[in-house]
Amino acid sequence: MALNVLVTGGAGFIGSHTTVALQQAGYQVVVLDNLCNSSLAVLQRIEQITGIAPGFVQADIRDQHALEAVFQAHKISAVIHFAGLKAVGESTQKPLDYYDNNVNGSVQLLLAMQQAKIKTFIFSSSATVYGDPQELPITEQHPRSVTNPYGHTKLVVEDILESIYKAETGWRIARLRYFNPVGAHPSALIGESPQGVPNNLMPYVAQVAMGQRSTLQIFGNDYDTPDGTGVRDYIHVMDLAQGHVAALHYCQQQEQDLLTVNLGTGQGYSVLDMVRTFEEVSQAKVDYEIVARRAGDIAACWADTTLAKQKLGWQASKNIKTMCEDAWRWQLAMTP
Ligand code: NAD
Ligand code: UD1
């Protein structure tokens, strides 16, 4: 019997790729999404890839009645929780929206799960909880610190999950700390569709290569890194999706557990590495200018991936060339 999994935010960037990976691993997926940062078309695209239409409920995670109805209608065994707001800059301007959506939303979801006696939960946390790293690579033991409301919402939900785990037996919780997800499904049917000016590097690079934006601004070349530009651990979104399938397998095998694990490749690349690789695969020029550092940015960040290998038997397999190729194919497919 296939297990039913509820994927909140399953129409979004990481949720849609994870839905594909879950279906391909034999799970039945019900997506719950309010479509505030995604569209219905994504659900059809998922079906095109896998041949299976995921269940879909258009609802907000803060809507208790909707959650109750989902848990009554489907025999859900586990919840993978992606739904939330994710723009760091916006979170400093609209902190209450972020606390309401990300923290209150998670609490409402967990309350509904408690009521329905569902105790397997996988949470999208972020490497942002490590703040400015004191040492590299970053292990899960690295102290946490955050500098903006978005990061704080991740930290608070991590703590809420720990409190629940300590208070009640039987919870199987994975707190997954993503590094920098990029790329798209190789079919180019799903990918990342940022609204307005992209905040993150790779969608911006793709739009410059496409000619939709003239120049990439590189935020600083005076960091203490090999070429002076910021270094990050970019991970292909399909590798990340597989990491969720591995985390779900892991949880199902435990009687109870609270696992906190990095999902990254363990390799850092600079902004210039990414720009050059993108130019190579797209055969397009990515014009750039060096500007001042972005407030709140760190010099370098990459994961220690030992625990993920050990606990989940998972490691990333796609290199930056594949990440750029898939991002470019998606950019071409998206452009009318
Ligand atoms: P996304 O915006 O593409 O997906 C989020 C989805 O959740 C969207 O489809 C949106 O419509 C939905 N949603 C938002 N609020 C909702 C609510 N209240 N009720 C129901 N649906 C709601 O973002 P993503 O990049 O796929 O990120 C998924 C999760 O991973 C987020 O929690 C994010 O904070 C976390 N994360 C993302 C990154 C990243 O770089 N993309 C890095 C670390 C962690
Ligand atoms: C950002 C978020 C972080 C989130 C992560 C993954 C901020 C301050 N932090 O981190 O909370 O977890 O995304 O989604 O927004 N860069 C440029 N020009 C650009 C865009 C980026 O030079 O136009 C550089 C940045 O300085 C950085 C690198 O590219 O060195 C990656 O940036 P980005 O994609 O925004 O990710 P993070 O800064 O790691």
Task: Please tell me about this protein's structure.
By secondary structure, the protein is α/β, with parallel strands linked by helices. It has a domain of 225 residues: Rossmann fold (3-Layer(aba) Sandwich), CATH 3.40.50.720. Helices cover 41% and strands 18% of the residues. The strands form four sheets. It has a seven-stranded parallel sheet with strand order 3-2-1-4-5-6-11, sandwiched between helices. It has a two-stranded parallel ribbon with strand order 7-10. Strand 2, helix 2 and strand 3 form a beta-alpha-beta unit. Helix 5 packs parallel to helix 6. The mean pLDDT is 97. The chain binds nicotinamide-adenine-dinucleotide (NAD) and uridine-diphosphate-N-acetylglucosamine.
| Rg, Å, rounded | 19 Å
CATH superfamily of the domain at 4-184 and 235-265 and 304-316, please?
A: NAD(P)-binding Rossmann-like Domain
Percent of sequence in beta strands: 15-25%
What is the CATH first-level class name of the domain at 4-184 and 235-265 and 304-316?
Alpha Beta
Sequence of secondary-structure elements:
EHEHEHEHHEHEEHEEEHEEHEHH
| Average pLDDT for all residues | 97
Bound compounds: nicotinamide-adenine-dinucleotide, uridine-diphosphate-N-acetylglucosamine
Number of helices: 11
Q: Low-confidence spans: pLDDT under 50, at least 5 residues?
A: none
Question: What class do helices, strands and sheet pairing give?
Answer: alpha/beta
User: Tell me about the biggest sheet?
Assistant: 7 strands, parallel
Total number of strands:
13
CATH topology term of the domain at 4-184 and 235-265 and 304-316: Rossmann fold
